[in-house]
Amino acid sequence: MLIRGLSITRLTYNLENEPFDVSGTVSDLENYKYDLKIDGKVDLEKITKIYPIAGMSLKGLITSEVESHGQLYDIEAGHYEKIRVKRQSNWSADLARKVPELFIPVY
Questions:
Q1: Cβ 62 vs Cβ 41: under 8 Å
Q2: Which residue(s) pair with 80 in the sheet?
Q3: What pLDDT, on a 0 to 100 scale, did the predictor assign at position 25?
Q4: E-state strands within 1-107
Q5: Angstrom distance (rounded) from CA 94 to CA 36
Q6: 13-27 tens-digit pLDDT
Q7: So where are the chain's domains?
Q8: 64 within 8 A of 44, measured Cβ to Cβ
Q9: pLDDT for 15
């Protein structure tokens, strides 16, 4: 059986009352033509508690509504003008990198 595409009616997760939804289609699984809608919130601090990033401390909220369609080939080839994106996003983030203390001997 040959799979020709993927239809995502609703792919969702909810992390502490912050929903994240994806819907759309992916067809032509060689060139990956896609038509996707992404709507949700991501709390960076909560995500890094689940997936820690060594030496990084993240805080903030990303709220996003994105609709996009195109194909992977155009992205890989740098034909960005062929990619259609409609978005509304709000970003509020604090990024900090933890640096270990440096010990420099004095002679």
A1: yes
A2: none
A3: 95
A4: 5-14, 19-27, 33-43, 56-71, 84-97
A5: 28
A6: 888 888 889 999 999
A7: 5-91
A8: no
A9: 83
* Tokens at 47, concatenated: 């995500």
Cβ-contact 67, 86 below 8 angstroms? yes
* pTM metric for this prediction: 0.66
CB-CB neighbours of 26 under 10 Å: 16
Return the structure tokens found at 15: 């992390």
Token pair of 48 as six digits? 């890094």
pLDDT tens digits along 37-65? 999 888 888 888 888 877 777 788 888 88
Give the pLDDT of residue 97: 57
